[in-house]
């Protein structure tokens, strides 16, 4: 029996060290996110020229939504040249015709297995490369805030080749939408602002991002069927030694998921992508670190992070198991400290405007979200055979611009 307890204890200590790494990583970058970030360029200095912008919106079976958001993008005020192109995957002929009648470009695509990365690559191969300097990527439900493209232009004038805007919630009309909005802002603070404050690359988020046109086409070559094209590009960019700028005050409004079913679908795709890149790049991480590429190694470390809702659930479980009477593994104070550290990292990552009653009420739905995460973890194989798109609802595009 003592040998069995020893083995159990060793396993629990190993798990504890792994979870300690998770907590310290989140806490470190959560604190770093409160350090001042140097401006990309002097605000009083106007760019010498305006980049020619190509706004790309992949639309997968989302006719009603794209008929709202594409015209809103078309109306976006930008002093330079800008053209909106919808990448139509499964849109109805009537939708395509209506978009074209509004002088919105439409590139029709069809795949055996649809992915956003492949759709974007086809668009870049179809459009005349000499016509654009910058490609901006929006999700089908996204709406750009006033001045977004102007700030993107400023970043490119400062010399950046890849830029990530501040994606934020367009709607908080259900408890799960509120939780999703909180998760978005925590990600922004830790993986974008926290890294940018230390002079590191911000993480891409899949939309509200802009690329030097030719470089974007290069990044998407052989992108394949991955459900996480943004993460693949993350690795390729830091391997190239290119810095990703973050624009914390330049917003793109994004629709948040309405219920636990949509939450499960979305997280299934995210977890599948994380596991894919953990497997693909784990051993290359130390090699790149040895070569001096710490940012690549950091991206690999991110693939080791347990999703935060699962982290809270696992730490709570181990805390209960470690209560007096349990003879193996770290003491109760260890697990309590990790749980407290996780909670602190999340709380200090939330913007002040989210300390409100609505968020407090949504927190009571965390156990349901935890259950949905467990289901998502168990069905990650689905992401290999299906696109698993997040469902979208129509919303007034203008209402999103606060």
Short account of what is shown:
Helices cover 51% and strands 12% of the residues.
Descriptive account of the structure:
- The chain has 402 residues and is α/β, with parallel strands linked by helices.
- It folds into two domains: 17-35 and 275-384, no CATH class; 53-259, Spore Coat Polysaccharide Biosynthesis Protein SpsA, Chain A (Alpha-Beta Complex).
- It has 16 helices and eight strands.
- An eight-stranded mixed β-sheet has the order 3-2-1-4-7-6-8-5, sandwiched between helices.
- Strand 2, helix 3 and strand 3 form a beta-alpha-beta unit.
- Helix 10 runs antiparallel to helix 11 (294-303).
- The longest helix is centred in the first third of the chain and has 31 residues, at 2-32.
- The N and C termini lie far apart (63 Å).
- The model has no long low-confidence stretch (mean pLDDT 89).
Structural class: alpha/beta
- The count of strands amounts to 8
Distance between the termini: 63 Å
Query: Compute the gyration radius: what is it?
Result: 22 Å
The CATH H-level superfamily of the largest domain is Spore Coat Polysaccharide Biosynthesis Protein SpsA, Chain A
What proportion of the residues form beta strands (DSSP E)? 5-15%
Q: Could you state the oligomeric state of the chains shown? A: single chain
Residue share in helix: 40-55%
Which word captures the global form?
globular
Subcellular location: Membrane
Organism: Hymenobacter wooponensis
Protein name: Glycosyltransferase
GO molecular function: glycosyltransferase activity
Question: What keyword list fits this structure?
Answer:
402 residues, alpha/beta, Spore Coat Polysaccharide Biosynthesis Protein SpsA, Chain A, 2 domains, eight-stranded mixed beta sheet, 16 helices, 12% strand
